[in-house]
Amino acid sequence: MSTALPIEHDVSLQAFNTFGLAARARHYLRVTSAGQLDQLASDARAQGLPRFVLGGGSNVLLTKDVEALVLHMAIEGRDVLGEQDGKVLVRAGAGENWHAFVDYTLAQGLGGLENLSLIPGTVGAAPIQNIGAYGLEIKDVFHSLTVFDLARGERRTLNGADCRFGYRDSLFKHPDGAGLVVLDVTFALPRAWQPNLRYAELAQAVEAAGVQAPTPRQVSDTVIAIRRRKLPDPLEIGNAGSFFKNPVVPGAQCRALLERFPALVHHAQLDGSEKLAAGWLIDQCGWKGKNLGAAGVYPKQALVLVNNGGATGQEVMALARAIQQDVRARFGVELEPEPVFV
């Protein structure tokens, strides 16, 4: 006979979101094994309750209490599975802390994830957002993952094509993937590692340190130093990292903007479109360092919205909407938030 699920009620989520926003879960289950999800279908207390999946809370904006059963993914475990086609396969549970997992791979002498060091959140959330930084995205080092289908009550393995990765996007952010819960993720890390220094700021920092042939650990340390210099620690100032995606616009629109704003920061894409720097757009609208209520824009990086203490999700949302409106009015560009609004 299976043990009853440890479902709790009226649970504070303030410690479970990196913005540190006060919100409560009507029902709450800390998921420490895939077997608990198997039990959901037969647990009378869970019948008919909508589900909300929560990872590290680094990509969510809680604007109100969650009137659902919050499935807080806390499945642990990490293993080196072996080698396949010159790649080392490494698997981690969805609840593993992302940065701690990156550090684990480095400790095994494996490079490949170092450019993604110090990104807040969990392993399970990483493919959902297709997290990326300093010239690398999850899709570049992804092998497969296991999901639990809440609608069918079954587990499945998905490969990269199944996950439909895009810029800060994946299957899981669309209706047909909304009921899929990530249980674990497997990465394919190169045995013949070469440093990825395509991102100019990272390459310049490595060069400035006088390192001719950096190791994965040295690249990771450099990334950590850059992030700490530019971004607030969520443990000190509530935030969700970069709040807006860098907008991608047609080449013709970018050229028209350059005529009006010659200093526009833009990066050409392979399809002829241009990716604009959202932080630059926000900064030009005068928002860097400004506050709206207890919510504000981080003084060192306009792309980061922060909780200055006691902010509500509604205040952060109002700040985001005001920024979007100003950028739209001045540049004719739509900014899309990265976090999911709840």
UniProtKB/TrEMBL annotation:
Pfam families: FAD_binding_4 (PF01565), MurB_C (PF02873). Its main location: cytoplasm. Its cofactor is FAD. Residues 21-192 form the FAD-binding PCMH-type domain. Gene3D superfamilies: 3.30.465.10, UDP-N-acetylenolpyruvoylglucosamine reductase, C-terminal domain, Uridine Diphospho-n-acetylenolpyruvylglucosamine Reductase, domain 2. The active site is at R168, S242, E338. It catalyses: UDP-N-acetyl-alpha-D-muramate + NADP(+) = UDP-N-acetyl-3-O-(1-carboxyvinyl)-alpha-D-glucosamine + NADPH + H(+). One of its GO terms (molecular function) is UDP-N-acetylmuramate dehydrogenase activity. It is found in: Cytoplasm. PROSITE patterns: FAD_PCMH. Keywords: Cell cycle, Cell division, Cell shape, Cell wall biogenesis/degradation, Cytoplasm, FAD, Flavoprotein, NADP, Oxidoreductase, Peptidoglycan synthesis. InterPro entries: FAD-bd_PCMH, FAD-bd_PCMH-like_sf, FAD-bd_PCMH_sub1, FAD-bd_PCMH_sub2, MurB, MurB_C, MurB_C_sf, Oxid_FAD_bind_N. Its EC number is 1.3.1.98. Pathway: Cell wall biogenesis; peptidoglycan biosynthesis. HAMAP family: MurB. Belongs to the MurB family. NCBIfam families: murB, PRK00046.1, PRK13903.1. Cell wall formation. This is UDP-N-acetylenolpyruvoylglucosamine reductase. It comes from Massilia suwonensis.
